[in-house]
């Protein structure tokens, strides 16, 4: 128990050393999964061990932080943490996300170079055993385009609140030069820049593999304060954005167990049915991509609503049939 308490205090100290603005007591309690009274006692204990802990007034509350960071003695990684970091880099590499894979490889080298030699020697056998015993199963699918030059330009524009200019070889006017305000990046089966040509038209998705001759203009390009990239992504099933629909799916008893462990949408609700099946409800756009996914459920799913999704599924089935009955 003493070791467990010491570990929790060190975890809190790392949280307080990793934030520039500091954390409130409520934020600390949420991240550590403890109550308010417990986190107050933990804060006091951390202050005794790390006197650099400081309070920052942020009316109507206070924030706490350790601005000088922690000594490397307290920051040695575990074999499990390093194995997870290596695995994440391998996953990105296998998915074709080379720029993000390189970023994780660089982080891994920095972590190891900051780790004391004795700790590295102690970690080596366990890390080697984990790396040999664990691997990533790569699912079939497209390899997302990730050109480092394009990705870096988008990130520079986002950090500098600047517009981007590029030639876009997609959409209804291939080859047209666009100037947009970047809102963010969606990583997935394909990678997309979320950006708006004007405030009136609002954001749309631009495939990164169709962006050429990209340039950060330096002209102001700040996204609206009320825009949430996560909320925007949650509006659709996958990446495609079209009319938003109320989706209702009936999963048969044979597929209920899988459905209860499956997330169709970030805002879904799942309702068990008397026959052992389940109803899944959510609101989203992207009916074509949803129809493609529902193919994988075979006869375990029935589309209850909307009619647009039913029609899309029929069209896709008919197209598949035509492709396989040709003489």
Arithmetic mean of pLDDT: 85
Instruction: Write the element-wise H/E pattern from the N-terminal end onward.
Output: HHHEEHHHHEEEEEHEHEEHEH
Compute the number of strand runs: 11
Total helical elements: 11
Radius of gyration, whole Å = 25 Å
For the biggest sheet, the summary is: 5 strands, antiparallel
How would you describe the shape? globular
Strand content: 15-25%
Structural class comes to alpha+beta
Task: Write out the strand line-up for the largest beta sheet, numbering strands in chain order.
Answer: 6-5-4-3-7
Measured distance between first and last alpha carbons: 73 Å
Query: Percent helix among the residues?
Result: 40-55%
- Unreliable stretches: none
Topology summary:
Blueprint: H1 2-17, H2 25-32, H3 36-49, E1 54-58, E2 61-65, H4 79-95, H5 98-114, H6 117-133, H7 148-160, E3 162-168, E4 176-186, E5 192-196, E6 204-207, E7 211-220, H8 229-234, E8 245-251, H9 253-260, E9 269-272, E10 278-284, H10 287-295, E11 301-305, H11 307-324
Antiparallel strand pairs: 1-2, 3-4, 3-7, 4-5, 5-6, 8-10, 8-11, 9-10
């Amino acid at each position: 128990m003493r070791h467990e308490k010491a570990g929790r205090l060190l975890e809190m100290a790392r949280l307080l050393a990793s934030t520039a603005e500091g954390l409130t007591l409520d934020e600390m309690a949420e991240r550590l999964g403890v109550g308010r009274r417990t986190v107050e006692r933990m804060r006091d204990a951390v202050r005794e061990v790390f006197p650099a802990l400081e309070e920052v007034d942020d009316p109507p509350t206070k924030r706490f932080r350790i601005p000088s960071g922690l000594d490397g003695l307290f920051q040695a990684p575990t074999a499990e943490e390093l194995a997870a970091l290596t695995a994440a880099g391998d996953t990105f590499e296998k998915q074709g996300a080379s720029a993000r894979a390189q970023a994780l490889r660089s982080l891994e080298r920095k972590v190891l170079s900051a780790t004391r030699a004795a700790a590295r020697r102690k970690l080596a056998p366990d890390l080697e055993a984990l790396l040999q015993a664990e691997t990533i199963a790569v699912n079939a699918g497209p390899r997302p385009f990730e050109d480092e030059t394009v990705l870096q330009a988008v990130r520079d524009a986002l950090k500098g609140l600047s517009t981007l200019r590029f030639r876009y070889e997609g959409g209804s006017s291939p080859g047209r030069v666009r100037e947009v305000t970047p809102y963010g990046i969606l990583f997935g089966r394909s990678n997309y820049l979320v950006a708006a040509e004007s405030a009136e038209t609002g954001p749309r998705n631009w495939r990164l593999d169709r962006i050429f001759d990209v340039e950060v203009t330096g002209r102001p390009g700040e996204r609206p304060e009320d825009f949430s990239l996560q909320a925007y992504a949650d509006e659709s099933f996958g990446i495609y954005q079209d009319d938003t629909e109320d989706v209702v799916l009936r999963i048969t008893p044979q597929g209920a167990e899988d459905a209860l462990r499956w997330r169709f949408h970030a805002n879904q609700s799942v309702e068990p049915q008397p026959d052992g099946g389940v109803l899944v409800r959510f609101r989203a756009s992207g009916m074509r991509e949803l129809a493609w996914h529902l193919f994988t459920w075979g006869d375990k799913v029935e589309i209850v609503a909307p009619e647009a999704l039913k029609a899309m599924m029929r069209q896709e089935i008919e197209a598949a049939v035509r492709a396989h009955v040709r003489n």
